[in-house]
UniProtKB/TrEMBL annotation:
GO BP annotation list: isoleucine biosynthetic process; L-valine biosynthetic process
Provenance organism: Candidatus Thalassospirochaeta sargassi
Amino-acid biosynthesis listed as a keyword: yes
InterPro entries: Acetolactate_synth_lsu, AHAS_TPP, DHS-like_NAD/FAD-binding_dom, THDP-binding, Thiamin_PyroP_enz_cen_dom, Thiamin_PyroP_enz_TPP-bd_dom, TPP-bd_CS, TPP_enz
Metal-binding as UniProt keyword: yes
Domain Thiamine pyrophosphate enzyme N-terminal TPP-binding, residue spans: 12-125
GO cellular component, one term: acetolactate synthase complex
Signal peptide span: none
Protein name: Acetolactate synthase
Catalytic activity reported: 2 pyruvate + H(+) = (2S)-2-acetolactate + CO2
Tree of life domain: Bacteria
Molecular function GO labels: acetolactate synthase activity; flavin adenine dinucleotide binding; magnesium ion binding; thiamine pyrophosphate binding
Length: 564
């Protein structure tokens, strides 16, 4: 049969979707079946797509997110109509806030039932308008292939983000001619992301940097999203400009490099925050200047001229006024600036650099090894597993990890920064492990956040994905208690988790390995046992102290902070 004849064959809408997914290079779908998506599930095997069955749709969305961040490809999650689709919402919002390419496919009730309050009907396209880059309700079966192709294009270009495709069940079951397999980039009116920065603006940036005496670079999440890590590293080293990072930008620059000053913001390092507040020129790359990064806006970087590089023009001057905006791809713009600027080395800039490096080194100290605490655990983990993929949940342990676990390789630090989604860590680790099976993948969790999606441990066991979940048990909601400590007169209302949960038994009950650590001397053996087991493992660390994470901004600017 000729290719022409094959294309005339009648197929179903479900076939069109699955074939379009394979044409986009899809390999894995994280999903949970339901009545509205059964036509898709009935045909999965013949297209060679691996399906990983999550235990809750939110977990499936986080898995797709973790997969995308670890591999650089779009992650795919799938759910049925109604509650299945709404369960995706938190995961979609998480991906949206951190600009992660995720394709969410939801089933919908048949077309004739839409608007009639049918069983498991919900307007998921309406719900997700604010948290997707774009979404589709596909009413015409003949546009299914085109919709999938457009969704991937939108999700993975420009400022990346989630796209939802909502498909009525009768559209999936409809017969249609073979889909167009063309892989030409869609022509979408009004959507044309700028790649090359404006040459005039780039020249102005070069001129500003030539005159700068106290420059600093901010590595934002857009550095990672655009694959600009190497370009940024070369630029900073050639110009000897110190680098600070946002939480998602931590992975944009080698953390062990001497020019790296750490994270900035409410929990930023002393060196990082002082660099921002005392700089005369800031090169901000791929950051939206969120409130967790800037602290009180009225006093942010009072002496600095800001060069703001971002692929999304909507972010320019949205929160912080930009003296010199450059819209475009971070990698291209940084390279263009570097080519024109060359190297720069003078005595005043050297004094600035040395001042900041001294601030950094003066505060570096080994973790207390007399008591079981999070910095010590992370320090030991780094020595045993120097180059893993790390995911984190959200809470105090997340900030400790940002400060105490340096990462140098790309796509190896995965966290929910923008939305701050508790429960993200474990499913994100599962998604990362599915995409990068040869890597060691470790999730850092609090005892509060781990319970929000711990059922996904079953997914790891059933799919033979040996992730390691390290649960920091201090029997309270750590970040909440720290805020109550600082701002609410030490009134620790409603944050005590109690001691009734045995995380090792949860692990064993789900078919995983459970290990308890109660002393510093047990840390190394526990980590090595988990790695050597080749099984999904939960290591429960019984912390000896709650241990607030510092510095912490408590005043009117980033340099008004407490350190203990």
């Amino acid at each position: 049969m000729s290719e022409k004849d094959k294309n005339k064959m009648t197929i179903t809408g479900a076939d069109a979707v699955l074939e379009a997914l394979t044409n986009e290079g899809a390999e894995i779908i994280f999903g949970y079946p339901g009545g509205a998506t059964l036509p898709l599930y009935d045909n999965l095997e013949k297209y060679g797509l691996r399906h990983i069955l999550c235990r809750h749709e939110q977990g499936g969305a986080h898995m797709a997110d973790g997969y995308a961040r670890a591999t650089g490809k779009a992650g795919i999650c799938m759910a049925t109509s109604g509650p299945g689709a709404t369960n995706l919402v938190t995961g979609i919002a998480t991906a949206f806030m951190d600009s992660t390419p995720v394709i969410a496919i939801s089933g919908q009730v048949p077309r004739e039932q839409i608007g009639n309050d049918a069983f498991q009907e919900v307007d998921i396209t309406g719900i997700t308008i604010p948290i997707t880059k774009h979404n589709y309700l596909v009413n015409d079966p003949d546009t299914l292939s085109e919709s999938v192709h457009e969704a991937f294009f939108l999700s993975t270009t420009g400022r990346k983000g989630p796209v939802l495709i909502d498909i009525p069940k009768d559209v999936l079951a409809a017969n249609l001619k073979g889909p167009d397999k063309s892989q030409k980039a869609p022509v979408l009116e009004g959507y044309n992301p700028t790649i090359k920065g404006h040459s005039g603006q780039i020249k102005k940036a070069v001129a500003l940097l030539k005159k700068a005496e106290k420059p600093v670079i901010i590595s934002g999440g857009g550095v990672v999203g655009s694959g600009a890590e190497d370009a940024l590293t070369e630029f900073a080293r050639n110009t000897d400009i110190p680098v600070v990072a946002t939480l998602t930008g931590k992975n944009g620059y080698p953390n062990t490099d001497r020019l790296y000053l750490g994270m900035i913001g409410y929990h930023g390092t002393a060196a990082g925050n002082n660099a921002i507040q005392k700089a005369d020129v800031i090169v901000a790359v791929g950051t939206r200047f969120g409130d967790r990064t800037t602290g009180p806006l009225r006093n942010f970087a009072p002496n600095a001229v800001i060069i703001h590089i971002d692929i999304d023009p909507a972010e320019i001057s949205k929160n912080v006024p930009s003296f010199l905006p450059i819209v475009g791809d971070a990698s291209h713009i940084i390279t263009s600036i570097a080519d024109q600027l060359g190297t720069k080395n003078d005595s005043k800039r050297n004094e600035w650099r040395d001042y900041l490096l001294k601030l950094k080194t003066d505060r570096e100290k080994p973790a207390d090894d007399s008591r079981l605490n999070i910095p010590l655990i992370l320090e030991r983990l780094k020595k045993i597993v120097p180059d893993p993929i790390i995911t984190t949940d959200v809470g105090r342990h997340q900030i400790f990890t940002a400060h105490h676990f340096p990462v140098d390789r790309k796509n190896s630090f995965i966290t929910s920064a923008g939305l701050g989604t508790m429960g993200f860590g474990l499913p994100a680790a599962i998604g990362a492990k599915a995409g990068m099976p040869d890597d060691t993948v470790i999730s850092i969790n609090g005892d509060g956040s781990f319970l929000m999606c711990c059922q996904e441990l079953v997914t790891a066991v059933e799919e033979n994905l040996p992730v390691i979940a390290m649960v920091m048990k201090d029997q309270r909601l750590g970040m909440i208690s720290q805020l109550q400590d600082a701002f609410y007169g030490e009134r620790y209302n409603c944050c005590d988790l109690g001691n009734c949960v045995d995380f090792t038994k949860i692990a064993e009950g789900m078919g995983a390995l459970g290990i308890r650590v109660e002393t510093p001397e047990e840390i190394d053996d526990a980590i090595k046992t988990a790695i050597n087991s080749g099984r999904p493992t939960v290591i429960e660390f019984i912390l000896h102290e709650q241990g607030n994470t510092y510095p912490m901004v408590t005043g009117a600017s980033l340099t008004e902070y407490i350190e203990e």
